[in-house]
Amino acid sequence: MKNYAYVHIEKCAGTSLHKILEYNDSGYWVLNPKVFHTNGEEYPIQKEDTNKIFKSYFVNGIGGHAIRPYRLDAQNISSAFTFLRNPSERYVSHYLHQFSNMNLKRTFEEYLQEDYYHNFITKALSLNGDVVEAKSVLDKMAYVGDMKTFNHSLLELNATVFNNRLRMYKKHDMKGVSSKKANEIILQFKEGIYSNNQKDWELYGYISSEGFRSKFNVGIEDVKCSEVSKMLDFKRKVFRVIKNKTWSYL
């Protein structure tokens, strides 16, 4: 597969997907963001940048938070794919990740007031946070997975985008937020969380519908999962470091 793009929406199983793609394809590049806020037209990487990267003979595919559909040309959208997640669980997971891993210490009440994180999925898929535009983008994508059914979605992705050429290395059961802290937040702030993510819930309902999902139930093959060798994982990590230092100059 050449010139595929994984649109990595924050807290939607991206780390696992990046690893699977890197294990299978040394020509897959994770484009790490160079700025904190990745949604919106101001982000440094634009269509001309992704086109230039795709023209590099050693790049087969790209992915990461730096990739948004409105930064891809129309011909590349047909080879793009993404994964979505229960919006309330994704919203809380985003907060906890920033609090625990990025040292952004604010209360959840303060987080609820930050408009940038409202309807984050919709904003990641459309330039102006328009749910109709986001649905149109999803319709044009080669594949849209659901984190709730991650294992089955991997098989659908493999069949739909990669013609069953991916080897799977580890099965994951991702049924949503499982931590005690996350569940407590969801229960305590249920109404506020839903209110801030109504467009995302509309999108999630759209991609979860039988009509939308039925187009991906074609040619699925079960793939035996292999263990990840230490050498393979070391190779992936080394290549990731080299690519991170290189991609800005492509």
The largest sheet, given as strand count, sense and whether it forms a barrel, is:
5 strands, parallel
Count of spatially separate domains: 1
Shape: globular
As for the CATH topology, it is Rossmann fold
Compute the separation of the termini in Å: 20 Å
Rg, nearest Å: 18 Å
Q: Structural class of the helix and strand makeup?
A: alpha/beta
CATH architectural designation: 3-Layer(aba) Sandwich
Please report the first level of CATH classification, the CATH class: Alpha Beta
- What percent of residues adopt helix (DSSP H or I)? 40-55%
Q: Can you write the helix and strand succession as a string? A: EHEHEHEHHHHEHHHHHH
Percent of sequence in beta strands: 5-15%
Low-confidence stretches: none
What is the chains' assembly state?
A: single chain
- Total strands: the figure is 5
Mean pLDDT reading: 87
- Counting DSSP H or I runs of 4 or more residues, the number of helices is 13
> Numbering strands along the chain, what is their spatial order in the largest sheet?
2-3-1-4-5
What's the helix and strand layout?
Elements (H helix, E strand, L loop, with lengths): L3 E4 L6 H11 L3 E3 L16 H8 L6 E4 L9 H4 L2 E5 L2 H15 L6 H5 L7 H6 L5 H10 L2 E4 L3 H13 L17 H9 L1 H7 L1 H11 L1 H4 L16 H17 L4
Parallel strand pairs: 1-3, 1-4, 2-3, 4-5
Helix pairs in contact: 7-11
